[in-house]
Amino acid sequence: MSFAASVLTLYPEMFPGALGVSLAGRALETGTWSLETVQIRDFASDRHRTVDDTPAGGGAGMVMRADVLAKAIDHASPPGDPRPRLLMSPRGKPLTQARVRELAAGPGAVIVCGRFEGVDQRVIEARGLEEVSVGDFILSGGEPAALVLLDAVVRLLPGVMGNAVSGEEESFENGLLEHPHYTRPQEFEGRQIPEVLTSGNHKKIAAWRRAEAEKLTQERRPDLPGALPQPLVK
Fold first, then answer.
1. Residue 136 annotated as binding site
2. Main role (predicted)?
3. Model-level pTM?
4. Least packed by Cβ within 10 Å: which of 62, 185, 219, 233?
């Protein structure tokens, strides 16, 4: 069974976007995964197809209405649909490689792309939306975040990457950032490929790559589980 993605959005023309080319695009063409877009505005009941209203309690901006969004979710994800319901949101749990792998191993996902100031909390609770963040920054809407999430998931689907090992030796897979990479030419502007990488000694190469990964992780992301412990200061 292929991975089935349903994206609820006010801008379905943003999809597949980058997901229609390269590895994800080929996988989409061959049916490894499928993409459905649902126009949230189609579920508005008034002649203006209104999807938002002023925030209760006052304040700037507009809020997506619970009743309209609930109808769209119920259409895309009827009772019995096993797919998780995700809401792309800056206040959500940070997306991790572990969560990406969980999603890739599942039947798909229903992804809600918020707009304006946010989504009525009641529909989040009533429809069991899992809020997911792709970083500590604000986007104009959930669509770019949904594209990021789907790209991360699709590349892990069986057969998408030519070499499955590629997905096992990347940043975050083992709690570490990935080691540096090199290729020809042997010399570039006076900089040489590290000698160990051309030695043919696979044990030494593996040790070098591990040490470099640990060093980079400690320098740039000491919060990751693979980072070396900080020395005790007396």
1. yes
2. Specifically methylates guanosine-37 in various tRNAs.
3. 0.91
4. 233
